[in-house]
Description:
The chain is an alpha+beta fold and 454 residues long. Helix content is 31%, strand content 23%. The chain is built from 13 helices and 18 strands. The two termini are 38 Å apart.
Amino acid sequence: MKRILLNACLSIFVTGTCLAQQNDPAAARKIDRIVNQQMTANTIPGVSLAVLRKGKIILLKSYGLANVEHRVPVIPLTVFQSGSMGKQFTAAAVMILAQENKLSLEDKISKYFPDVPATWKDITIRHLLTHTSGLGDYPSEIDLKRDYTEDELFSSFKKAPLDFQPGSSWNYSNVGYVMLGILIGKITGKFYGDFIKERIFQPLQMTTARVISEADIVPNRAAGYRLVKGELKNQEWVSPSTNSTADGSLYFSILDLAKWDAALYTDGPLTQSSRDMIWAPARLNDGTTKDYGFGWHLGEYHGHRLVFHGGAWQGFKTFIMRFLDTQLTIIFLANSWETRDFKFARGLASAFYPAFALPSVRTIADTEPKTTSMIRRALMQIVMHSDENKEVAQSLNAFSLPVAIIHSSELIERKTENDLRVYRYLLTDIGRSAICTVKLTPDDKIASLQLVEL
């Protein structure tokens, strides 16, 4: 009954509100279909969306509900949480300091943090920006529901071993961006969020962009949602300090992000030289490169050069995708953890570039989420320890975003075959798709794993 009520509410607003000239009505109609499909398939209460050409809005639409309990519709001023899309603003703040010669990207962080462990001695600011520092995710001892000072977080980070020698590999690191926020504070004498507000948000008139605060009164704030056994629930609570770190703890509206996109065509706040560095691939010690810049993923798909990033946090999913060659930008903000962000973004891209069309593969309900989580963890281990599983690791790393690909998996088949449980998943990247088939023994061991690109 609750699902029926939600769908009834969605039907009131799902047709959206357009506040910009549609110079491509066919693409606008395709976008409506794609958004409606994704909202229905993944129980997404609300979506805010913008399409821009050369920094100017050509399509601005609102769908569904910002707050299900109060039946509040999404509007262009609706404020969503950023998730890791916020990392690009942390990176921009670092680049502003570099432009002003207040730091060098080649500075070792021991210059600013003299008490770092010996294993950190070669970590540079550039390593933190590009996820090549060897710092991993939050240590297991960190409780996201507990408040920590920056000193307490730093102390915990120092106890964890590095995943690899700085510059020798790549692994997405929230800890690295938390450290960048602390670094900004050390250099400026200000909380990193205040520095970003003064140097980015205020000059660009991003009037609703700010660091998260659940205590403050925030007009037009959306609620974040998740599904628990098919039932819509509010987002899980985390502590105020967890929601103030520099790895993606921002509020913003779609209008704020439209202003940010427009600014990326100008020399304020970032110069052309800074933008070139932000969108250049990370170079590893052995001379190979990784398609990640400073707070942006990079890639070339179907003849287009893209820079993009998603965010996932507290019942929100966000995504920005910039086609550098055609100066087209697509941004969406959604208030459901169930949003398949890469699949959603790719579908939207296909409205303008048909080569991005999603494969016609039917997904089914996943009634064994714990098994899927276990398989995802196993795939992550394979990616991280590629020497042990070279064949599968190479297949996974053939995609530019193995982490995002793994987390985007959707079940398409479940069966039993010769006493083995067989699970087939669709993996969706920005420009490619694959079928991953995993066979499990009765005691949950992986008997075989096959990845086939579509």
